[in-house]
């Protein structure tokens, strides 16, 4: 069986070599052929790529896809060229050459953008980011934020997920300050695109996450500022997220570990994304945390007292019906998981199609 498979692979590889030569012949000019036949060339190159794929020769398969991409672009078939660059990226990924893969995925994304298919362009950047997560978190986050920029220009669908992936990636790699910036951008995006329901709940969760990130950095002043800015968000103050943020700040200001632990036991925290939840559970109060970062000393006592009084007044008010908020949160979280599963299934299908087409 192994011998037969090897023979078949060799035959497919030879067939692929012949098709590459056929494509090169179409691309050449001669005394009696003044213009290249780019259409014939890319068709031969794509057939060659299929042969090399069957032969499990990723290097030659990648080479054939790159030649097909160049030929299709010269035929003004931008979408087809993008798909071939994407397929070349998948070949490089199989070879564990992620720098090369990212380069091809970027080229594919650029061509998808040129073709007007921005959602696909963003999807390719997201795939590229996943390959860099372990080796270069900052570069991966850059790719995810580029994907967000594209999605904001298009349907905006998937932008929230890209923000979350970038935040989670940065937190896992201890890039907390940069994660704070990403969550801030996510809040701006959600403020512009949330209209009640799940969108508003996502916004509340992001505001709570921002408070947690600042407290993790022992920056009480920044956390308090983030909370005060969140109060302008519709429904945040009486929400479970708003009350949790207020209780966290109260615990840190009063250096009260029991208050902190009681707050962290609230169900609202379980609806946060995993990396943010782990940071929240790792919070602890001490003198440096309660007094904040070096910038906290610049906060006037009167101003700090005013914000504390405001939080106390809000905490004294009755909470919004917990069951309703928790059901909304659970539904939103469930939708997130279903979207992630659907996305992974779709990506697997697209990976297969990208190589076959």
TrEMBL record:
Topological relation to the membrane, as annotated: Peripheral membrane protein
Repeat positions for TPR: 82-115
GO annotations of cellular component type: SNARE complex; vacuolar membrane
UniProt keyword annotations, A-Z: ER-Golgi transport, Membrane, Protein transport, TPR repeat, Transport
UniProt-annotated stretches for the region Disordered: 287-357
Subcellular compartments: Membrane
Source taxon at top rank: Eukaryota
UniProt feature, compositional bias: Acidic residues: 338-357
PROSITE patterns: TPR
Coiled coil (UniProt feature): none
Bias type Low complexity, positions: 288-298, 310-325
Entry GO MF terms: soluble NSF attachment protein activity; syntaxin binding
Stored InterPro entries: NSF_attach (IPR000744), TPR-like_helical_dom_sf (IPR011990), TPR_rpt (IPR019734)
Example GO BP: vesicle-mediated transport
PANTHER family given in the database record: GAMMA-SOLUBLE NSF ATTACHMENT PROTEIN (PTHR13768:SF2), SOLUBLE NSF ATTACHMENT PROTEIN SNAP (PTHR13768)
Family, similarity comment: Belongs to the SNAP family.
Protein known as: Gamma-soluble NSF attachment protein
